[in-house]
Amino acid sequence: MTQPLLPCVENTPSSTPDACVIWLHGLGDSGHGFAPIVPELKLPGSMAIKFLFPHAPERPVTINGGMRMRAWYDIKSLDFESRADLDGVEESARLVEQLINAQIDSGIPANRIVLAGFSQGGVIALHLAPRFNAKLAGVLALSTYMCEPSLLANQANDINKQTPVMMAHGEQDEVVPVFMGNAAFKTMTENVFNATWQTYTMQHNVCMQELNDISAWLQSVLS
After folding, report:
1. Residue 3, domain member (yes or no)
2. Which of 25, 127, 169, 173 is catalytic?
3. Where does the source fall among the domains of life (predicted)?
């Protein structure tokens, strides 16, 4: 039985959209958290891009004393190797895959869809995109890391090996240390994915220079 589509905050262009960006938030946030970023990107009005900011399901989070909050997966410990709960990651990846497929069914082809994610959302993006069965326009992985990187070699789908993957991280990030993001980048490149890496003088957030770079990158992959 197919689960209902994730609820989303939706930002639609004035004309019929021919591209879509699906942007996944971080732990304890919601789709409303990143929705205000759209005007900050200052994309040309001629680009008919729909932005979807889905809400993660609510679930107990172990490191927060079992408190229920919006989370793409449980975090049982802050240990580098076991921070992300694989079962939860795979469950959320399936939900996001449904959302992508719904956009394809609506008439936006996969190669006009960008999958973006910040922190926990980036973990889902980096898990789903390399395994997805259709070529995407691009992947944006911000201040994030990879769940079970050792699995990628056997599970990767070649179809997105040339898809641009922009990976970015704050040098002073105390939530997801920069070495975790760089390790994910190295795993992507070792598995021959088309990933780039850049850092910014910031903590676990986004900054104006990063937004400018994201805007330029989106214009490149969706031109």
Report:
1. no
2. 173
3. Bacteria
| 204 in catalytic set | yes
Q: Is 127 a catalytic residue?
A: no
The tally of domains found in the chain comes to 1
Does 2 fall in a domain?
no
Determine how many CB atoms are found less than 10 A away from the CB of residue 201.
9
Residues 12-65 pLDDT 10s: 999 999 999 999 999 999 999 999 999 999 999 899 999 999 999 999 999 999
Tell whether the torsion through CA atoms of 179, 185, 188 and 192 is positive or negative.
Answer: negative
Do 34 and 118 form a contact (C-beta atoms < 8 A)? yes
Query: Can you tell me which residue has the tokens 């990107």?
Result: 41
Q: Which residues span the domain enclosing 104?
A: 8-221
- Per DSSP, helices labelled H in 4-163 are 31-34, 37-40, 86-105, 120-128, 152-155
Active-site choice (18, 74, 204, 213): 204
Per annotation, catalytic residue among 30, 119, 127, 143: 119
> Is residue 174, in this structure, part of any structural domain at all?
yes
Specify the pLDDT at position 1.
52
**CATH assignment of the domain containing 186:** 3.40.50.1820
Q: Evaluate whether residue 1 is within a structural domain.
A: no
pLDDT digits (tens, 9 = 90+) for 145-187: 999 999 999 999 999 999 999 999 999 999 999 999 999 999 9
| Span 67-90, pLDDT tens digits | 999 999 999 887 766 778 999 999
Residue 173 annotated among the catalytic residues of the structure: yes
The residues that bridge with 60 in the sheet, in sequence order, are 68
